[in-house]
Design goal:
Elements lengths: L2 H10 L4 E5 L9 E5 L4 H11 L3 H12 L6 H11 L3
Antiparallel strand pairs: 1-2
Helix pairs in contact: 2-3, 3-4
């Protein structure tokens, strides 16, 4: 098997991670965010959208993990203005 095939197989086998955020959940349970590692293509898109600003990139990643996929460039500004790192 070629190295690229091994890399693809390894990436495909990565588990979904669950991030629990008690502060954002309901009274009886934390918000659970499910995420898989980003592909190189997704990472490239994030870099382009964030213009090398780490906090903007973090906002885009959070929004993506929470299912906000439509026009993220319009929704990132309120997230950045209202959430503390």
């Amino acid at each position: 098997m070629k190295a690229i095939e091994r890399a693809k197989t390894h990436f495909a086998q990565q588990d979904v991670k669950v991030i629990k955020v008690p502060e954002w959940g309901e009274e009886d349970s934390p918000l659970e965010i499910y995420a898989k590692p980003l592909t190189l293509s997704e990472t490239s898109k994030l870099y382009k959208m964030s213009k090398n600003d780490d906090l903007t990139m973090m906002a885009y990643v959070l929004m993506g993990m929470m299912g906000v996929h439509t026009k993220p460039w319009l929704t990132a500004r309120p997230v950045l203005a209202s959430i503390q790192p």
